[in-house]
Design goal:
43% of the residues are buried. This protein is of the alpha+beta class. The protein is built from five helices and eleven strands; from the N terminus they run H-E-E-H-H-H-E-E-E-E-E-E-E-E-E-H. The protein has one domain: Lipocalin (Beta Barrel), CATH 2.40.128. The strands form two sheets. An eight-stranded antiparallel β-barrel has the order 3-5-6-7-8-9-10-11. A two-stranded antiparallel ribbon has the order 1-2.
């Protein structure tokens, strides 16, 4: 078993809600959450112990990734779209209390720029999907519940205005994410930041494909929002 096999349990962070509970989809459609067991032990107490050399380098170069990705997008006519996103796409927008509270979220991915030596679209904002943050004692996990590519991983504290995310990409109809480190091509590393009163983001510098920088937005789905959109629990 990998020292980070407990990451496999992070699917539970999206699914540990009681079976009768529903999670609101982006269009008011509720999706039932299955129940899975979460490991209670914490074999990895410090993210420094497991992060790969390449991912450590990616995190260290996050400022460069921001600068290059935004420059590419603006240079190809996407300045208005970037401005419309407000603090979500402002590199220095991080606020104190970076840890996202446990619960359901509406998540959205924005891709900026393209990797060196490749051609591609320099700005792409996707529709929202369901995410969930789960707390297990003092540990936080996050998973994107829907979509063909679903980031899943653990969040570690680094400083008050920035946490570290390490995880892996779940593909297609896979029920369980690979453990971080099992498949380097699917590993994910980023920073978790709060950029507004009820808005968080995970910044993924130099992801493995398509873009120069990915930003995963997280906005809590409140009980009031569920009622307004016609959702509810059973």
């Amino acid at each position: 078993m990998s020292t980070y096999r407990s990451v496999a349990a992070l699917v539970a962070l999206a699914m540990v809600l009681p079976a009768c509970t529903s999670v609101l989809g982006p269009k008011g459609v509720t999706t039932p959450s299955a129940v899975m067991e979460v490991e209670k032990t914490d074999p990895v107490a410090d993210w420094h112990a497991i992060i790969s050399f390449n991912d450590k380098a990616r995190l260290a170069a996050v400022d460069q990734a921001w600068a290059e990705a935004l420059a590419q997008a603006r240079r190809t006519g996407h300045a208005k779209e970037i401005a419309a996103e407000g603090p979500l796409l402002e590199p220095k927008a991080a606020l104190p209390r970076a840890a996202p509270p446990p619960g359901p979220y509406l998540c959205r991915v924005v891709k900026l720029g393209h990797p060196a030596g490749r051609k591609g679209v320099n700005f792409m904002a996707y529709k929202g999907f369901n995410c969930h943050v789960e707390a297990e004692e003092d540990r936080l996990w996050i998973v994107k519940q829907t979509g063909s590519q679903r980031p899943a991983g653990r969040i570690w504290p680094e400083r008050d205005d920035r946490y570290v995310f390490l995880g892996a990409m779940v593909l297609g109809d896979e029920k369980e994410p690979p453990a971080y480190g099992d498949d380097p091509e699917r590993d994910l590393a980023g920073y978790v930041e709060r950029v507004d009163a009820f808005q968080w983001r995970i910044v993924l510098p130099s992801p493995k494909a398509e873009s120069r920088l990915d930003v995963l937005e997280l906005v809590p789905i409140t009980p009031l929002a569920r009622r307004l959109q016609g959702g509810g629990g059973g």
